[in-house]
Amino acid sequence: MDPLRSYLGRLLLEDVTPVVMVLTTPLAEAACRKSGLSFVDMLSPFSLFKKIDVPVRTASDQPYRLQQFKIRMVYASDVRKQDCEVADARIKLVVSEANEKALPDLLSDPPQLKDVLNKPEAELCPLWIKKFNRELIRTLSFSDHETFDHPVACLLVVSSKDKEPISKFADLFNANQLPPLLNEGIMDPQILKHYLVLHEQQDGPQEIAVNILAEMRTTLGLNDCKLLSINSSTQADGSDADNSWSTYKAHGLHNHEGTCFLNMDDLNEIKDFMQDFASNHIIPYMEQKIRVLNQQVATTRKGFRNQIKNLWWRKRDDVPEAANGPMYTFTSIESQIRVLSDYAFMLRDYELALSNYRLLSTDYKLDKAWKRFAGVQEMSGLCYFMLDQSRKDAEYCMENAFTTYLRIGSSGQRNATRCGLWWAEMLKTRGQHREASTVYFRISNEEPSLHSAVLLEQAACCYLLSSPRMLRKYGFHLILAGNSYYLSDQKQHAVRAYRNALFVYKQNPWSYINNHVHFNVGRWYGVLGIFDVAIKHLLEVIACSHQSLTTQSMFLNDFFHFVQSTGEKFDVYKLQLPVFNMSSLRVVNEDHRTYASNADVDVNESIWQELEEELIPSSSVVRTNWLDTQPKSSPFRNNKACVCVAGEAVKLNVELKNPLQISVNVSGISLICQLSTNLNASETGALTTAAEEDIASTKPSISTFESDGNNFTVSKLDIVLGGGETKRIQLEVTPKVIGILKLVGIRWTLSDSVVGYQYFEVATQKKNKKGKRGARRSLNTNLIVIKGLPKLTGYIECLPTKAFTGDLQLLTLNLRNQSEHAVKNIKMKISHPRFVIPGDSSDLDLEFPQCLRKHVQSDSNTVSEGTKENVKGSLFAFPQGIKIQGGTTFSWPLWFHAATPGNFSLYLSLYYEMESTTDIPYRTLRMHYNVEVLPSLDVSFAISMCSSRLQEYIVRMDVINKTPSDSFALNQLSCVGTKWAVSTLPSRDSISFVETIPANQAVSCFFKIKDLSTSSCIEAADGSCGSDIVLSPGGSTDVFDVSRTPITDFHYQERHQQGKLAKVPRGLLDFILISKAVAVNSSKSEQLLSHHTCHCSALSQNPVWWLMEGPRTITHDFSKSCCEANIQLVIHNSSEHNTTVRVVTSDCMAEKSQTAPSHESASGQGGWHDVSLENDIKAIASTKGTHSQKQSSESISPFVWCSLSSAQVDLKPDSSAKIPLKVCIFAPGTYNFSTYELHWKVHSSESGHVDENVTSGGGQGYPFYVNVLQGA
């Protein structure tokens, strides 16, 4: 881009121009004031020459032509350094005027991203910002280290009415009236002087003025004197007067008093005067000045010799450090070079200006005149820019100047700002907007808040224009600018800056800065009195959960303050306080499905459907329902709508949360509903689709939906939500008439000030492909209201929420019919019959637990042996004749048993039919309870076969109390059924020492159990052994009958859980341990616990049992012969199949099976010994004979089997056989006749399959010790 056509080029052409100092007499100034203008204001519009076309020749011989030129007309009194406060006040006035004009724009909608990106560069920054930049630059006019503001010429003006005008010219240029910079020697007083006589046509003929002009030319010079006539118009307020100068208003010719005596002839004369003054006087004078100065510089400074001389002279003495360096007068060579450079720059000979700026920068750097050095660096950068040469050198010069100004301190701060403004414009011209924004940000740090705000806004615009666009930085710098505007009391500008940044943070999760923007915009709108917009923005931040408590309080207080300032309640759509979780919405409408409590509604529908599969009539199982029985014209055939009953509340569960840390008061929470009594099917469909879409898209006002008390009633709820609290509430609407009920939304009032409302949005999915579902609604808000129906309500009385494992209780199911009509055919389905089973009607009058003791006779509750396997199922039908009349309560007993520890959910569904004809023939009542079962006693059994007797077992019962603080007392142990008997071990007649088991303690008890089904069991014949054993001391009368319901019912439920009854092998047994909780408070009722352990078996699962029978002590005289002992081996087949058993005896077995006395253990006598005493030895013939007998017996076995060495027997299931055996003993001693082995093989039968683990096997003989004594 051509630098001259850029904004910076135009700025330099208009601001870095020659200055003409104006001196006027009072009469001359008064003549101009008649038209409402000063003399300078009158000439200023004509000081810009766009087509002057003047040839210029400076230092070179080659001339060039100026097409555009401008001179600045300045009063002599204004040629001085400007006061900072006055300059800042003028700048503030520019911003304030724009601030007042910005208010109408603030009432429009904030700009959107698309609109901002499509704006041209010229519209992004307001036009007044450019005016601000120019005013900021002009605050540095007439500085002492720069000369382009020094006057080039002086225009002296007198009136034709002045007496002695020639002497007036001399008086005007008096030293007392000249600027201080001229008197101090900083500016050159020898400047071009031009003299002007101002004549008013209204004062008389022009001859007087012509005579004065002639006298002036004689005295002051022929070419330097001019005559100017003004105020030729006779009509001050005429149309001719307005039209004469209206075309020059754009150039600054503003008539503030509304009168003007200048006509077109006057304006043309002024224009001609300014044209002549510029082209024939100022430009030639500057050309001549440049040539003279250039010759002086060339003579004294240019050339190698002059450069070395200058360098040596400046290095001669150390120059003290100073901001401005040494004082330079206008006669110094440095000042002359600066004048030469600035004149060349103003006449656009940029190469000459640049060469002299570079020459001068070396001098200032050596002199440490840093401010002057920065000034020439700044102008060097502008020369590079105007020449469109090295960008790198231009940026280096501007960077060097900028940093040098800042290094100086406060005196160079404003110069750094000007340098930064020119530098930024230079970068913007070259498309380097990102770098320009950095420069704006740097200079903003050096300026007061008002100036900083404007600079930051320009930096933001540069980020938006950069490539790629940097939206985040754009928004951030606008926020910084808005904050600075607010600190400078420019609230309209602050709002405008923040509003322009809204679209940046609208779609981003930067919550803190988003809250900051909306809160401040809302607050500032409120200060400006625009409360509706203020409330709109504050609504965006009142639900800021991430803010601190103090910030939340501030947001909320300001919001309510502006709401109260309006004097009315606001209706706010989607008010975010509190936050309604629309995904948690649940409409509870009871058709044929009713619920006992609100918690039952949250249960998954599939659970209820699975539970009710056998409960409801078979017609419903084949995927039909009562709606199919309706006529095709009936509105009930509309499957898209749900059904509710007139007079019964439709409930809506929703979760709301207070995101703040402050408690908020929410009142009047209710549903927004519509009820149409027109049941036309086509209109119903229209309501479910078109109406929903219309509400979702148009968002009608809350006043559109008014409560209709004749057709329905809605509940209203008032709550106080604590900080961060979440509540789930239930809203109700009760239709009174049949029709179509539409749930539209929710309304509520926040702190009695703001009415919030939100409509239910319906999410639909269109059918796009074949096979996919069509429109699906996330929330069905259309309900068909039908006539009233009978309804049962119910609850389980005394059902515990926490119980110990094994806890057994009698409960009551209470049902109440709230309608006027009776219900019949009642059935019940229970999800966990292991925990809850229905009782009999007679159980209601029982006293628990006394009813379970054996002394209580009740044949109806005793389960016979033949019916044990008929376990109560989960489906229960009440007696056929039972009906629940309207307004009555019906009760039925239930038994509860806490089977296993953990948390379980109990589901119970009741089916009942209507006695009268209704739209729905049946209904169900659904109940749901959560029970936590705590660990109590952990019971385990270990069973070992008795080696001394068949069909007897030793049982070890291990009981661990797993509670942390409760104790339990053991009451009784029972074997289920009549086959088994339990008793104490023979060594102990009682175990009364086991009274209670404290917390975290364990106990082990030993018992003996017998199989009463064997014919050899003596206890079975005399009845001395039973299936129950009392564990509590003196509790023989406190025995509970485990064969009675509900204990036996729960026991067989446990058998089903621990292993199916049909697959249980024979020979296994079950135990029931009954205990009682030790109550800390004696007034508490007795708590009974039953622990069921099923499918217990012996540790050894061999199908064959055997036992050796015979004498234990034998006396024989071995001096006569050896001893023969007759024994027999009893073998029993305990399996369900035919078994072959083979017995093999052996004379020599391992020595470890023999037991010898200690005094023979080291003699190597094998495993046997002589038990004779000394007196027994006397009976033998001689000691020697005895000794020789032992010597000879070392090589033979102490006993031998003299019967068959092998025998085989076939046994049928559950049968026994005895095999006779004979042993020959050679010497007295103690012998273990276990040197035999058994081998068996189980044969499969048609009745069942044999387990592979027990098909065949074998075993060593059990120890059988016999004492053989020496007889007399």
TrEMBL record:
GO cellular component, as recorded: TRAPPIII protein complex
Residue span, TPPC8 C-terminal Ig-like domain: 1111-1237
InterPro entries named in the record: Ig_TPPC8_1st (IPR058541), Ig_TPPC8_C (IPR057651), TPR-like_helical_dom_sf (IPR011990), TRAPP_III_complex_Trs85 (IPR024420)
Protein name: Trafficking protein particle complex subunit 8
Superkingdom classification of source: Eukaryota
Domain TPPC8 first Ig-like: 602-768
Gene3D superfamilies per the UniProt record, alphabetical: Tetratricopeptide repeat domain (1.25.40.10)
